[in-house]
Amino acid sequence: KAGVTQTPRYLIKTRGQQVTLSCSPISGHRSVSWYQQTPGQGLQFLFEYFSETQRNKGNFPGRFSGRQFSNSRSEMNVSTLELGDSALYLCASSPQGGPGETQYFGPGTRLLVL
Amino acid sequence: DAKTTQPPSMDCAEGRAANLPCNHSTISGNEYVYWYRQIHSQGPQYIIHGLKNNETNEMASLIITEDRKSSTLILPHATLRDTAVYYCIVRVGGNTDKLIFGTGTRLQVFP
Q1: How far is A78 from chain B (nearest CA, A)?
Q2: Is B95 helix (H, G, I), strand (E, B) or coil?
Q3: Rounded Cα gap, residues A110 and B59, in angstroms
Q4: For FRET with A20, which of A60, A95, A106, B56 sits at 20 to 30 Å CA-CA?
């Protein structure tokens, strides 16, 4: 099976712009989670989607949003970019999102905000 | 969610076993212990997980104490490619899928 894929891999934006990142989960996986990784805060959970519904959300401002499509592919959007949004954004998928399941991560999208 | 405590860094000679400890003293009965590693800002790689019993797979072994308050990840024959940050995560049960990452242990394998 192909792994989790994320596009684009690298992105440069300027403050105030918005950005959309895409994640394709492993075939058959219906749960998709997003994480942000920065040197200062480490890996932090953003949100999780299952069956096109946001099921869980981390402690991030409303500028961070996401959605999931019927084929389980997911996008996350960040509006009004700030310098502090520069980070590695990681997507992970699992079959149902249950506690005994394994989340598999993609390679990430590295976002630089200038 | 339960929190974990790991040493910030460890060294290991190539070919020797690497034993990475993790404390999770507030773990609940339905919470799993997961281990991931991250090599140079790539996506985290799943290693192993367990609930109560010790587990072994082709990558590593996971030893969980009887009281479940701590665990040890064992890489039986460390190689240079095992140099990475290792994260011990306690994952809550239920229908939410969220991993709470700590700061991890930076394992340096030297020749």
Answers
A1: 20
A2: coil
A3: 28
A4: A95
Q: Using the beta-carbon criterion (under 8 Å), do A102 and B95 form an inter-chain contact?
A: no
Q: Please report residues of B whose CB lies closer than 8 A to that of A106.
A: 43
Buried b (16+ CB within 10 A) or exposed e, A103-113: bbbbbbbbbeb
Taking CB atoms and an 8 Å limit, are A99 and B103 in contact across chains? no
pLDDT above 60 for A33: yes
- Chain position carrying tokens 């799993």: B32
Chain A residues with beta carbon closer than 8 angstroms to that of B49: 100, 102
CA distance A15 to chain B (A): 24
Cross-chain Cβ contact B44/A99 below 8 Å:
no
Per-residue pLDDT tens, chain B, 111 aa: give them.
558 999 999 999 999 999 999 999 988 888 889 999 999 879 999 999 999 989 999 999 999 999 999 999 999 999 999 999 999 998 765 555 678 888 899 999 999
Beta bridge partners, A87, equal A111
